[in-house]
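help with this.
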Amino acid sequence: MTAKLTGSLREAPATVPALAAVALFVLWATDQAGYPVTHWAPGGLIVLILLGMGIGLIRLRPAEMPTPVRVALGAMIAYTALSFMSILWAAVPGDAWEGANRTLLYLLVFALFACWRQRGVGAALLLVIWTLALIVLAAVDLLHVNGASGSHLQEMIPGGRLDYPTGYPNANAAQWLMAFWPAVLLARSERLPWGIRGLLAGGAVLLAEVALLSQSRGSLYATPVMLVLVFALLPRRIRTFALLVPVAGGVAAAAPSVLKVGDHLTKGAVRASSVHGAVTSTFVAAIAVGLVVALAAAIESRSTASTATRGRLRTGIGALAVAALIAVLAVGLLAAGNPVTRIEHGWDSFKGGYGETTSTGSHLVSGLGSNRYDFYRVALDEFVAHPVVGIGADNFQQQYLARGRSDETPHYPHSVELRTLTQTGLVGALLALVGLAAALLAAARSLRGPDPLGGAVAAAALAGFGYWVVHGSFDWFWEFAGLGAPAFAMLGIALALAPGREPAARSTAGRPALLRRALLAAGLLVALAAAASLAAPWLSQLQVESAARIWTKAPQAAYARLRQAAKLNPLSDEAYLVAGSIALRYGETAHADREFARALSRAPGDAYATLERGAIASARGERSAALRLLGHAVALDPRDGLAREALAVVRAGHRINSDELNRSILLKARQLA
């Protein structure tokens, strides 16, 4: 195996920078799944450097790449360019820039993993290392939760749903289940050592149980869809079923203890005893399954059974799989009852929003109720209003504040498909479809390639990417770089295994020296522009966060850092909003008004800045200006009770008390956090 690995690295040296990117993905997985710009933007610079090293040190020959891979890469380049162009028509240019930069990150990751051909061993190294790292991280997190107590335990499992380490239960579940599917599909491959297969199978149980602790309804609905896709589209179904049997058995054995954590709360808080029981059951089940699969794999590796015997075994397992499918469908129909009634009830629940919350009962079976129906309604309305190129990357929040009906203030539409349609229009959707179709065509070639290990790795990588797409169809996972970057890396791995063209005969003349220099100069300019685009908002955000930490002790230094932040990010209004809020806390109303006015010059539709300017105008006795500004604030966010109340006060002929208003705003922010 070592000799094969060494040979693979010689033939595919791009594996080395890809391994560095894998380490970055694991780092993001330990803290908020890479969501903050201060996490993923510097990571994007690292990936850019790694890609540059690959291009500079490893010869990139686009002509030898399979045509579908080149089409997929070209479509993603065009989609990224469209995202940057959307800054021109976005209502909030700063948010559009951040969204475009995140798309740039995914492009860089995809290019790093897809542009150089891979052998099965090298691709397996990348995917196995990432999967095992996630398994180890899940185990460490379980031990950390098991050792926590008191308020610390409640912070990690608020309301019975584990949101550590991502900070969002649904993202938590997705992070582990994205690794679950590669673990399962790699563990079935006889080309891997039996010990690795056992680790992966036991790890799959561990990943599933940690995901179950988050009680994500999205994962509950995504899993059966993934099962259908895996068995319908990926080869070697009998081996998949044979591996899933012990894994599913292990998950089922520990599930009651795991579900008890969130189902049986004491005054809304989890019980430490339930957590201990869940952790113990999870590790026992994972170890048992790992040992069983490792033993079976060891026996298989030494088996000398005849072809006929193997054929009879496959037939028996196939028959068992069919029987299991029939049993599952029968049980499902009995549990669901009348399917028409269930569908109608589900639709009514989906449209009805959140139901009454209780301190007991499983979140997983609480129906489809949420505010996503309203998110999707607004997203589709915005698409109809701006069908060609959309409203701009990451520019959903202002539109929802003005047109939504729920009390939530979502930044994103909670669907990767609606994000594409709403924010980049039909042009962006067409580019995404072309790129995805080309990528899947190339991946299909990888599955049928001559290298059995390469085919197994391609299937596992596709499953990991597929889970991100399926679950992300009804959640906001595009915005978590710690989820999106590994997803595009796995898609890139699947494409890198596709059989490529034979090296073309090189002309002795080669390209003219002038053309080579022009291409090199253009490439350097694009790389520098990409680096500047990623670095500026990151450095700006660092200054904003620094100012937020020191303003109580050194307000002038905080103002200075916020001015620097505004210069570094000339599109964002955040630095001015923070500066205005600080000025209000010190009673510097004139200074605050100037800062909020600057914020509105960058984002004219900001409801908070408009409300504050209206309150300041009222406090100064400028009634007509206050009425105009507060009326506009209500129009921007009609469901904001504070804005409506402030407008009513001014209409009644009174002045607004800015201190009381800001205390109410602060209290509301804490309640929503």
Observations:
- Residues 2-303+337-496 form one domain.
- The chain has 27 helices and no strands.
- The first helix runs from residue 2 to 11.
- The chain has a mean pLDDT of 90.
